[in-house]
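User: Just a sanity check before I run the rest of the batch. Below are the structure tokens for the first item. I only need the designed sequence back.
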């Protein structure tokens, strides 16, 4: 036994060394391949990286630098470093705070309506298996494909009390059409426009998540006696909760950055939409109507701080549903 074991050990020695040499060569070859793949990867992402740096990171850095300086007649036309003074001014500016409160109202009203309609449409379409389902899905999504400016102009025409169809439609029933562009109605009119435009996009995201659910789960629920409503509420909605969290974040960020629709309707709303209606419109007005580029940059970054805080709080509160916990 001893002689045999020694022979085995003597025979195993050179084999082990050979295996180590082969393993080292394989490791070196794998490392070379990985290195080449990394270089090819960097080469492919290089165009995007250049564009990302030139048109996002560098402008953001320059805007932040401007937000820390002042330039005007009081400074003799020279840029003067003022630190956080512009931010102190922004967070105590009643115009900025009023605009911020207004977009917060839009968030409270508009986000639940958009998400509720998108979820309802997705659940209904998920249960249909006919050609009507495909046509309905396309019709609901089409408004998202319309540019925001074109959509706002179209609704401005429909809302117009002078040449819109509302006067004729209400006249058929002997009623007077409300002025959708008045100060008392402009909030609801804007909510309607944005909801019309974005529900289809959110619906597609939720619908795609619904289609990934294993059909055997529905079959098991059906065998256990669950009806359609119970299946939707207790199975489908919880299983797409992570997608719904993502949709709410998109809606939250988009609403806080409200700009295009009120800017387009402002010319036909007869004073119902002031130039500082939202923080983004206020920053735009400061920059291009009053040439206060430094303070406009500060307003933009102050809004970005609120957007970041709002999104972070929402993601923290929904970390269980979104799968982050």
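Assistant: Here's the designed sequence for the first item:
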């Amino acid at each position: 036994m001893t002689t045999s074991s020694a022979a085995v050990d003597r025979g195993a020695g050179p084999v082990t060394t050979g295996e180590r040499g082969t393993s080292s060569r394989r490791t070196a070859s794998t490392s070379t391949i990985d290195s080449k793949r990394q270089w090819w990867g960097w080469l492919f992402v290089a165009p995007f990286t250049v564009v990302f740096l030139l048109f996002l990171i560098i402008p953001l850095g320059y805007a932040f630098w401007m937000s820390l300086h002042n330039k005007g007649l009081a400074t003799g036309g020279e840029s003067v470093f003022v630190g956080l003074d512009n931010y102190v001014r922004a967070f105590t500016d009643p115009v900025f705070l009023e605009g911020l409160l207004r977009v917060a109202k839009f968030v409270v009203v508009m986000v639940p309506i958009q998400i509720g309609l998108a979820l309802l449409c997705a659940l209904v379409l998920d249960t249909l298996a006919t050609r009507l389902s495909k046509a309905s899905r396309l019709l609901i999504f089409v408004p998202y494909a319309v540019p925001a400016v074109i959509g706002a102009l179209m609704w401005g025409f429909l809302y117009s009390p002078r040449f819109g169809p509302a006067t004729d439609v209400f006249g058929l029933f002997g009623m007077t059409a409300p002025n959708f562009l008045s100060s008392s109605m402009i909030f609801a009119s804007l909510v309607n426009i944005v909801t019309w435009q974005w529900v289809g996009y959110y619906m597609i995201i939720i619908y795609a998540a619904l289609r990934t659910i294993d059909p055997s789960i529905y079959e098991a629920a059906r065998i256990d006696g669950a009806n359609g409503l119970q299946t939707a509420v207790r199975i489908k909605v919880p299983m797409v909760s992570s997608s719904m969290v993502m949709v709410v974040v998109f809606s939250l960020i988009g609403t806080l950055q409200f700009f295009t629709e009120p800017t387009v309707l402002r010319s036909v709303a007869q004073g119902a939409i002031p130039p500082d209606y939202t923080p983004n419109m206020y920053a735009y007005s400061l920059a291009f109507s009053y040439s206060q580029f430094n303070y406009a940059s500060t307003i933009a970054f102050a809004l970005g701080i609120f957007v970041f805080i709002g999104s972070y709080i929402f993601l923290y509160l929904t970390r269980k549903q979104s799968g982050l916990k």
